[in-house]
Design a protein that fits this description.
The protein is α+β, with helices and mostly antiparallel strands. The protein is 37% helix and 23% strand. The protein has 2 domains: 2-197, Ribosomal Protein S5, domain 2 (2-Layer Sandwich), CATH 3.30.230; 206-351, 2-Layer Sandwich (Alpha-Beta Plaits), CATH 3.30.70. The radius of gyration is 20 Å and the shape is globular. The chain starts with 15 loop residues before the first strand and ends with a strand. The structure holds ligand DP6.
Length: 359
């Protein structure tokens, strides 16, 4: 039990109300891959918080006549009851109930919807758990109005992490770091912190166009992938590499050197997938069209000297990163050369954002 997040003040007061948050997804530049119990990362990670890919979550709550031993909740996803999500949420509520004991005295109706299509291959766990955790913190604030806004966000990130590791970073924008490391003061394995160092203007309005190569569900979940890092032959080397990349990225984000940025970001993306390919059992999430797009981006960069690079999450889709000044040029490149490698020619234009908003 992590004591700072324990809830002591509780006197079982009767409450009812509603809370809503809109929380974005994020894209990691330095990848979280591998974890220990419970949701403690093997390595530190750093991400851009997005703007257009988000989850809207509304919780309606009212006191129960008699408190239960499990959380009493119902989940509506896009207006429809979703029992498969309720099973996942049950596990989440079991993890957080010691920190939020008031949940046992409430009946909750949780309504969520995503801004991006359900079957787009874009993971929704980061936006979903961060939005839900912020709503839960609103309930906590209603019971204890004295909590500071700093504590509110810190605990929201802590709770999000217990749902999905990368969700801890979605609470803060435009950049967030999760995982204890030597380069960022106050970094923690328990929650993410906001990136407070200087950021060069060219990274302040970075665009992320997500090329939807495969809109299907992944055949191996991230949870399984993380587990495979525990006995991975390259695990200790990966930890050394993360430290080097994190230290260098901090310097590069300040200097604005896009070439050096590209090198770190693409190395991280390809290392992530290399870790999957060399796990035992080994597996592949990238598809032939992922490689087709990567090769096109490399050719384009060579021929035009343009500032554009890619990263990948745990799937086949490509995230193209580039400064806003290149938007028109890159959109042309996508329509002419890349959209043919996407399922139904689809892609989503997103950009770095400032984090969640209350609804
Ligand atoms: C490849 O956060 O989805 O996107 O903690 O098991 O829910 P769980 O895993 P998750 O893993 C994300 C991994 C990644 C890299 C990253 O976002 O840092």
């Amino acid at each position: 039990m992590v004591n700072i997040f324990k809830f002591n003040l509780y006197d079982n007061q009767k409450i009812c109300g509603q809370s809503g948050w809109k929380s974005p997804s994020n894209i990691a530049l330095i990848k979280y891959w591998g974890k220990k119990e419970i949701q403690i990362p093997l390595n530190a990670s750093l991400s851009f918080t997005l703007a257009n890919c988000y989850t809207d979550c509304i919780i309606k709550y009212e006191s129960l006549k008699k408190s239960g031993t499990n959380c009493d909740f119902k989940l509506l996803f896009e207006g429809k009851r979703k029992v498969s999500f309720e099973q996942k949420l049950n596990k989440f509520f079991k993890r957080i109930v010691d920190y939020c004991p008031y949940l046992l005295d409430l009946k909750l109706t949780i309504e969520t919807k995503n801004s991006f299509p359900h079957s787009s291959g874009i993971a929704s766990s980061a936006s979903a758990y961060s939005a839900l955790s912020l709503c839960i913190m609103d309930i906590e604030k209603k019971i204890n109005p004295k909590i500071s806004s700093e504590f509110f966000l810190k605990k929201a990130s802590f709770l999000s992490r217990l749902g999905s590791g990368s969700a801890s970073r979605s609470i803060l924008g435009p950049l967030a770091i999760w995982g204890k490391n030597d380069f960022f003061k106050n970094s923690s394995d328990l929650y993410a912190i906001k990136y407070l160092d200087e950021i060069h203007s060219s990274f302040k309005n970075i665009q992320d166009t997500i090329l939807l190569v495969d809109k299907g569900k992944k055949h191996i979940s991230s949870t399984v992938g993380h587990e495979l890092m525990n006995d991975h032959s390259f695990s200790s080397d990966r930890l050394v590499q993360v430290d080097q990349n994190l230290k260098l990225l901090k310097k590069v984000l300040r200097s604005g050197d896009f070439k050096a940025f590209t090198n770190i970001v693409e190395l991280e993306a390809l290392t992530l997938h290399a870790m999957m390919m060399t796990s035992n059992p080994y597996y592949l999430l990238i598809k032939p069209n992922t490689l087709n797009i990567i090769n096109e981006i490399w050719n384009y960069r060579k021929n035009t000297n343009s500032e554009v690079c890619f990263t990948l999450d745990a799937g086949a889709n490509i995230h193209m990163l580039y400064p806003k000044k290149n938007f028109t040029e890159i959109q042309k490149f996508i329509t002419e050369k890349l959209s043919k490698f996407c399922e139904n020619g689809e892609f989503i234009n997103d950009h770095v954002g400032n984090g969640p908003n209350k609804l």
